[in-house]
């Protein structure tokens, strides 16, 4: 497909570390094997939900990519039929996403939607609502996490501000987008408020989505 034909298209980008280096906040709670397994479970669940969301959208204007430096995630993403973006040497989440946004702009996509790979249970209908959001009038969209992280972001390409993932990043992203002349819209989607970072998040997942962890054990 030519760049011109893609300009109305949107790219969902899921950033993913190597599972062996992931979920370090759970070091006191889980063994290295279980941390890696949890990271993979959450990644697969996020991809599945994103694929279900795409099926709800008419017209096929959205594709899914993974940005990673991990050989294991590269193999898995290929097997899942996803677009692969090589982040090169790992330099952090915002830098990996800058690489992905540059790649997407260079390949003619008109907008990027960043979804972290550790969302516990995003609802496909809510993801579809985000992915279909109108970006006319310079809008961009932020879905805040409970802890004021950024659990989803939809921005036009080329992206006129730099990513600022980290503590209270939704505030930083809002300010950066405004400073770049965009109009940030806060979209507090209920199923995108939680990700799985801490032992408390994991307890919540076990209490409310035990089937997610059982599916992985059965693989
Ligand atoms: N490609 C890429 N993805 C990253 C990087 N850092 C974090 N991620 C991904 O971004 C999402 C949110 O990551 P974090 O919560 O910051 O990291 P985590 O490994 O899940 O957990 P912690 O180690 O406890 O911070 C997850 O899908 C991570 O795999 C990075 O440097 N490169
Ligand atoms: O800005 C953020 O949301 C975080 O850096 C990435 O998400 P998490 O650490 O809350 O998973």
Automatic annotation (TrEMBL):
<dbReference type="InterPro" id="IPR029044">
    <property type="entry name" value="Nucleotide-diphossugar_trans"/>
</dbReference>
<comment type="pathway">
    <text>Cofactor biosynthesis; coenzyme F420 biosynthesis.</text>
</comment>
<comment type="similarity">
    <text>Belongs to the CofC family.</text>
</comment>
<dbReference type="InterPro" id="IPR002835">
    <property type="entry name" value="CofC"/>
</dbReference>
<dbReference type="Pfam" id="PF01983">
    <property type="entry name" value="CofC"/>
</dbReference>
<protein>
    <recommendedName>
        <fullName>3-phospho-D-glycerate guanylyltransferase</fullName>
        <ecNumber>2.7.7.106</ecNumber>
    </recommendedName>
</protein>
<comment type="function">
    <text>Guanylyltransferase that catalyzes the activation of (2R)-3-phosphoglycerate (3PG) as 3-[(R)-glyceryl]-diphospho-5'-guanosine, via the condensation of 3PG with GTP. It is involved in the biosynthesis of a derivative of the hydride carrier cofactor coenzyme F420, 3PG-F420.</text>
</comment>
<keyword id="KW-0548">Nucleotidyltransferase</keyword>
<keyword id="KW-0342">GTP-binding</keyword>
<dbReference type="GO" id="GO:0043814">
    <property type="term" value="F:phospholactate guanylyltransferase activity"/>
</dbReference>
<keyword id="KW-0808">Transferase</keyword>
<keyword id="KW-0547">Nucleotide-binding</keyword>
